[in-house]
Write a structure and sequence with these properties.
Shape: flat
Structural class: mainly alpha
Number of domains: 1
Strand order of the largest sheet: 1-2
Distance between the termini: 32 Å
Strand content: 5-15%
Largest sheet: 2 strands, antiparallel
Helix content: 40-55%
Length: 80
């Protein structure tokens, strides 16, 4: 249901999630997706990875953070 609602949004968010599915049935497509995501990672020293700007912009559009509100992301690593 959430993917359907996201697909109805305007702009890049709607375009990104239009006809989105939460499953990948073809192992070759899953492998290709992992390779594409891995190619987008920008590695820095000490094994740190930085999120590409376009992905950050999509996340901000989804979460819509507000001043003085806290957003928890347990997968953010150091959060730096």
């Amino acid at each position: 249901m959430l993917l359907h609602r996201l697909g109805q949004q305007r702009g890049m968010l709607g375009a990104t999630f239009f006809k989105a599915q939460n499953k990948i049935q073809d192992p070759a497509k899953l492998s290709r997706l992992v390779q594409l995501i891995d190619a987008e990672d920008t590695k820095s020293g000490a094994g740190q990875y930085f999120t590409p700007r376009v992905l950050i912009q999509a996340m901000v559009e989804c979460v819509q953070p507000q001043p003085m509100k806290t957003i928890a992301d347990p997968a953010c690593g150091t959060g730096a």
